[in-house]
């Protein structure tokens, strides 16, 4: 590889010993977080990379305070200093895992760039409405010290370090992937996993310290996915179907779970928020299954399909059957409800998971998709009749694309939705959003009995941005949320 590999002492990633106090960032428990203040701002990664517009990607600040005169408007844009980054997911320098450390501070939003390999640290504390760029970690430094590229998920650790999953090497080979460690000043420390313990493919990860476990998922080789989706690449073994179980915090690969034909392309992963729980879920995009993983009595881990979205038999599409394509999901902070999207079908779903082994569908709403009325694509039922989904306009706006990234309010009553996945895949499946821009919606949630309903008063149009239509992806609140905070 020709890199200067840094070997770490894995005992350095430790739970801090400051004890429990309320002076650190975040909240003492997930249930306490649910009583936090209502969100008034939300940060959204916005992409020009791959759209044909030669402008930098940027971080948008959106006003989500219904009492504000700029409600549902972009009130600030922070452009990155480079073109071609493809901002994607984000994380914090500190979260509730550091709640017991009075010296820790949730100040910097960490923005990995999936294509360029840069990592940006953005200061959200000086002016939360107008964040500013704090530091850039250049890809050459990351490659030189670790051999890693294509950074994706960032999580803060209780030690103060930041861990970032990387999906390949600089040439896009999956064999080069692993986990990057940055210190609290965003200096590259090295790899997290022990030498020889890298996963086959990289993507998302979540750790559960009380069970001394971290589990990661597998998208595919960057050389394959960055050019668009090719079904042949799945047969060629360029996409994943495994979960990788690591010992925490020492980075030893303990077990590889083969999800088989029911678990192709497992993407987002979440443990239940209660840190004592030993179960969680992973969304498998291509096979459109929610897979539950759980710990056995002997300490090993197993998995089973918990929810299955049947593919639709369709006419006038590239294939005779269309998967739902589960691309994002999350769990409410009280571990009662699970929400996921079907990016191709176009619906958002809510399930009661009080019994994680037996989820119950409690809400569903259509907010886009390839089979909505007006589309040339129709779904065919068993009796041969055809149907299309009813997707209402919002403030007179036709809902383009399909639901993709979601974020839930702390109290579990509002679900925010954007519709861009990744520029190359957007161009392939929803070219209209590259031409006209994406959007952001808000769905009202019944978190007592269950139910979802589009909020008609909220619509953010990224097609009218000053530098041209952009692609809106992941969302974060300044005070943390249920997809970035981990409790120890």
From TrEMBL:
The keyword Transmembrane helix does not apply. The keyword Transport does not apply. PANTHER family: METHANETHIOL OXIDASE. It comes from the Eukaryota. This is Selenium-binding protein 1-like. It holds the Pfam family SBP56. It comes from Tripterygium wilfordii (Thunder God vine). Belongs to the selenium-binding protein family.
